[in-house]
Specification:
The N and C termini lie far apart (66 Å). The protein has a single domain, classed as Collagenase (Catalytic Domain). It has eleven helices and four strands, in the order H-H-H-H-E-H-E-E-E-H-H-H-H-H-H. It has a four-stranded mixed β-sheet. Strand 1, helix 5 and strand 2 form a beta-alpha-beta unit. With 290 residues, it is mainly alpha-helical.
Length: 290
Amino acid sequence: MTPAYVIIAVVLLAVLLLFRKKKVQALTLEEIPEKWRTILTKEVRYFRELPSDQQPIFLKEIARFLARIPVNGVELEVTLEDRLLVASSAVIPLFGFPDFDYQHLNEVILYPGHFDREFNFHQPKELITGMVGNGPMEGKMILSRKALHIGFDNTQDKHNVGIHEFIHLYDKEDGVIDGIPEAFVDKSFVLPWLKLIEGKIKDIHEDESEIRDYGGTNNQEFLAVAGEYFFERPHLLQKKHPELYQMMVKTFNQDPTQLLSRKEVKAKPLGRNSPCPCGSGKKYKQCCLK
């Protein structure tokens, strides 16, 4: 006779699997509300300029992500627009990899604004806008909601914190965030990539590059910063850094110059010494421009 505790364990496991199956079941294309398309068309240039036959694929990937990953807020009410911008940040970098699932993510947490490494956002000691968690926070991503929206509002600054953090997750698919997304590239790609970014980081340090200074921090931040540039200003990156651009095409398995028009969406001019639009009180160059 089978012990009672074994039967109970089997029943509980079946319930858990049923719950998980129900939880990850995404909306079909027919079930996706038209409001989603309206918001994405207005707020996400990448979606707006996708060919008409690609937009339904993007919508289905958005639905798949939101069915799997909860987006929760701390001292804020998460809106549909918030969730769609988070999901867009996830889908854009890996649109070249259909049906991709981030293996190291189980929740996205939105904070009202900047936060520090101790997750304080009332009087933060640092001005962090995004973080992929590890240790006790493994599987979590934290984003500043203000910075998330700014990233999609301003398509001129080559900066999008949501895309930046999801590129870190893409990088982590091989188990470590190191600037080498080995899970999706041939090994022959690694050495040329390292040699290229070594030179690009050197140019940043010597003030001979317009790539954002933060990209000079290390290899992993270079990948994320260059990735933001790749998706926000692909034509400009291709013109100024053609070899880097081709490497990024291989890395993300897509060519945004074939998707996005050369004519950039005009945003309100923002000088380096302007107050940062995120509300930190600092100059733009000392805050979100970094």
